[in-house]
Amino acid sequence: MKRILVLGAGGQVGSELVPHLRGIYGNDRVIATDVNAGRREGIPGDGPFEVLDALDGEAFNHLVGKYRVDTIFNLVAVLSATGERNPELAWNINIGALTHSLCIGKERGCAVFTPSSIGAFGKDTPKDKTPQDTIQRASTTIYGVCKVAGELLSDYYFHRFGVDTRSVRFPGLISHVTPPGGGTTDYAVEIFHAAVREGAFTCNIKAGTYMDMMYMPDALDAVVRLMEADPARLKHRNSFNIAAMSFDPEEIAAAIRRHVPAFRLSYDVDPVKQAIADSWPNSMDDSCAREEWGWRPAYDLPAMTREMIEKVGEKLAGSNAARGL
Q1: Dihedral (C-alpha) 151, 156, 162, 163: value to the nearest 10 degrees?
Q2: Catalytic site includes residue 143
């Protein structure tokens, strides 16, 4: 039975992954950590929580020993658009947390999961059905540079030291639970909230811009499925393409109109985010993940849209009721 430590547990992925893991392995076997003590309130359910700066290797190592951890989920990241405002900070945090995770994994025999991203691909990568193994020149963002370096570093620790490193390249993640955290694909979350609240949305990515996206329940399932996979089946490790759906702003708007017929979409394009989006794949080939560890998404665009509209509507109604509106 695993004993798991989650770094960055209060973030977009962590705040949903922690209760998901606790539902599988038990509350006491999943230790949530975050640099921000206030984020504990955003993690549903019971279980251990520790304040931890992942760049403090001594404190990190102490917690791994204290809880007899055998699996580290490193979710610490400064995302794409945010990283461009302070690339030095993004490098120090993204690579620093990973380096400590790998070193501690080597010392204590822990498996290490660190997500990569579609941001690991660049303008010279094939745009459609991007292969598992292809050129990666993600020089347009420090986030992408960190992800490419992280994939290589994780593979190095696997081949050189035998650390059980595994990873997926996440597409844009869409969730009704937590707000987005400064990524280029954030519009695909914000559009649902705007549709329910106001019936209109101004998009900062231009029409015709396709990017891979995934509903959060599929992302959580992918992480667990990969970490439970028989290592003998894994020809790849760092990092697997996974895909569920690819759409542009017009297509997600059309899906929303099936539930909010009067929904209006307009544009005010952010040149920084648009340049990042233009450098990323339109869609990824995830056949290796399907073959090597049985990856299968459960949600397509219509199914995700139906649930997002419903859940965002419930949350808005609850918020209004709490304020007496």
Answers
A1: -40
A2: yes
